[in-house]
Amino acid sequence: MGNPELSVIIPVYNEEAGLPALFDRLYPALDALNTGYEIIFIDDGSRDRSAAVLRGQFEQRPDVTRVILLASNAGQHMAIMAGFEHSRGDIIVTLDADLQNPPEEIGKLVEKVREGHDCVGSIRQQRQDSAFRRHASKAMNGLRERITHIKMTDQGCMLRAYSRDIVEAINSCKEVSTFIPALAYSFAQRPAEVEVAHEERHAGESKYSLYALIRLNFDLMTSFSLVPLQFFSMLGISISMLSALFVVFLFIRRLTYGPEAEGVFTLFGIAFFLIGLTLFGVGLLGEYIGRIYQQVRHRPRYRIGAILEKQATEDTKVTEI
Q1: Does some domain include residue 139?
Q2: Distance, CA of 195 to CA of 219 (rounded, Å)
Q3: What distance in Å separates the CA atoms of residue 178 and residue 183, rounded to the nearest whole number?
Q4: Is residue 257 part of a domain?
Q5: Per the domain annotation, does 222 fall within a domain?
Q6: Which of 127, 128, 165, 173 is close enough to 200 for a disulfide, judged by CB 3.0 to 4.6 Å?
Q7: What is the DSSP string of 101-124?
Q8: In-domain check, residue 218
Q9: 199-226: per-residue pLDDT in tens?
C-alpha cells in the first residue's frame, strides 16, 4: 500500500465533547476529495476521555485513521510536530479539533498546493470570536510583521497546508519552542493564502487563555527575530545620551541658580520609569536566555505513550509504547 496524497494532522486536548461532531464532518469531507488520505490525531495529554474516544474512532476507520497518544502535555505546536514526523502524505494539512475551521474547507487548501504553492495559509472570514480577541489578533499580526518580516494575514488560524518538502525542512529543525506557521513561511518559496469560513466553537472552551496567548506571541517574536533585543539596545543608548545631557543641564543650573529642592518628585518619576524599563528589558533578555537554556539541555520535545495505526502488511492495529 503506497503513501496517501493527503495527511490531515489534528492536535487534541480535552476535546471529548466535540470529537463526535468532528468525526461526522471530517471523514465525509475527505472522502469527497476522491484521493488517498490519512488522519493523524495527536492526543496532547488530555485529562478527559479524548484518548478513549480517539481509540474508538480508530477501531471504526483503521484504514485511514492513526492516533498518537503523547505521554504528557507538550503544547499544540509540539503535538503538530509529532504529527509531521509521522505523516506520510505529499500534502499535509493542520486542523484544530474545535470545528471553528470547517473540515469542508480543506479542499481549497489542497487545490492550492496542487497548483504549485508549497505553503498555504488561510484567512478567516466573519470570525466568530469575541471583539477583544479579534482586535488583539489584528494588533499582534501587525506587530509580528514589523518585527519578523513574516507576512501572514491571519497568524492565529491553524488551518494550513504544506508540501512534503516544507514539512521535511521543519522536521529537520530541532527547536524546542517554535511557531509552526512562521517557521514554514521562512522555508516557503511560493506561499499563498485562501479565504475560509469560520464558525463558533462546537463544544468546550478555548484552551488558550490570555496568558497562553501572550506566551505564544513571545515564542513567535523571540524565535524569529532579534529586533526586540536590538530595540532595547538602541533605547538604552538613547536614554544614556539623554541622561548625560540632563546631568550637564543640572550641573549648569546648579552653578547658575545654586542648590534647590524643587523637582524632586519629577526626578523620582523619571527614576521609577527608567527602573521599570530596565526590568522589562532584563525580562526580555531572560526570554532569550531561557530559550537557549532549554535548547542546550537537548531534552525531547515530546514523549509518545502509544501509537495506534494499521500495519501495512496485516489487517490489525499496532500499539507502540
Answers
A1: yes
A2: 26
A3: 7
A4: yes
A5: no
A6: 128
A7: S-GGGHHHHHHHHHTT-SEEEEEE
A8: no
A9: 877 565 655 556 566 666 666 666 666 6
